[in-house]
Amino acid sequence: MNNRIVKKQNEEWKAIENIIPFIEDTLQIENAMGNAIYKTEGPDFIFYNDSRSIGIEVTKCHPSVQDKNEIYAPALISFEDKICRKFAQNEFLQEITKDNKFNIIIDKGANFKISSKIEDVCNELENHLRAWYTKSRCESNLIKRIRVLTSPPRVINVVQFNAMGRRDPILTSYLTKPIQAKDKKLGKEYKKRSACDEYWLCIYLPFEEYRQSNCVCRDNEFDEILEKSKFDRICLTSVMPNDISWLKGDPNV
After folding, report:
1. Alpha-carbon torsion, ordered 150, 152, 154, 158, to 10 deg
2. This prediction's pTM
3. Which residues contact 136 (CB under 8 A, 6 or more apart)?
4. Is the peptide bond before 251 cis (omega within 30 degrees of 0)?
């Protein structure tokens, strides 16, 4: 099995982690998380006991993709990773961390964009680091500020962008497209491949989208879409523990 397939499967398991307790409770099974016997294709998972089965289909929701017609959020994460890897090799950083490694947390400035030059960003980072080291001030446009943590002791320097930020409510307009797309596949493909007693749809919001899965702005039109859906249950979840919203078929009711 190649790395791409393994990565995809790991992401799918992560996407349904928050609903595993509901699956186990419904089917009265244990240790379902990560168990390869339940991994299938079309739908992505089939969980079962001796008398009942539940097909789980996973789909990602990227509002940034729908807004910009491009994979903006994942591309931004990749861009930030390149900056972090490059700056970790910065000569000044290496010079001042021979005895004690740092954890550097970066807050982006107003002019930071995915089109920014990596070299320009790293130059500003060095200016901020030199200012921190000499206890002076530094003002720049691409980088707002950095925090330098010197403890606990580390074996390597860690450079990372600040992942903490505002998490906005999710509009139903972003959810309609993935629901309707998976509904078509459920009717044309999945039910022909596997006859499950129930089918659940798990919509996953990647962390980089900064959206709340438990805060959905619903309306009557969206409720009608949910009612017409062929899925018995539809949930919205994310990487945060217990971050889940049952859009249809709430098992808690």
Report:
1. -60
2. 0.64
3. 130
4. no
